[in-house]
Amino acid sequence: MQLTILGSGTNVHPTRAAAGYLVCTDQQILLDFGPRTLMNLIKTGVNRHQVTHILFSHFHADHFSDFITFFFDAVIYAKHEGGRRPGMTVIGPRGTIRLLQTIMGAFPSFSRPPFKVTLKEVSVKAFMIGDTRVVPKPLVHVPDLSSVGYRIEYQGKSMVYSGDTQYCDSLVRLCGNTDLAVLDCSFPANKPGPVHLHAGQCGQVAQEAGVGQLILSHFYPIADRYDVKAQAGERYGGKIRKGRDLLTIRL
After folding, report:
1. Residues of the chain with pLDDT under 70
2. What global pTM score does this model have?
3. Which domains does the chain have, with CATH numbers?
């Protein structure tokens, strides 16, 4: 299993792309697709026209908006550049099908793509993508939006991606004994903000869940002005890494 961070910031971060992560197992799976992450995907050397599964944690723009550019690029590639691509499956929380059907119907050239598009909404049940097992779990972010985190398991290794979340018991359970957890570290512990984890809570989750390695990511600009790694380390004694764009971790 290999994880590449495509975006470790937020919509307004001056030096980091917004949320996006590429997981390579027997599949190539994208977790969220925020602004500026498409160009980082291209920089990895991965053939974007062979990516078949995109999993969204929720539909705030900083986790979603580059999908529109990605999809338009895929349509142009298949229609006008003679390219062939496999079908695309887009998975997300409650509301995914309605939102994406609206987009497909509203954007020019989106309504009849020359490849199969499958839209799915997750429940609490695990599902398989090839030989990769994906476990979704609803998490607490904002009251008016469904949000999920994902646990990905392959060949005895596991990783968790929280998406945006507050501290909650379901996040601790999702992270239980995982090898790697990528957690929302929007704010430093001494300057906490609403509806997100701060660095101290990231360490708390990792410690309570028995996480093997903690990756801090999804930084608002203020988080880069403080030592969030040290703050997380006050509550968690394991390995901590501060995420950055194009950082690759192999398990």
Report:
1. none
2. 0.95
3. 2-250 (3.60.15.10)
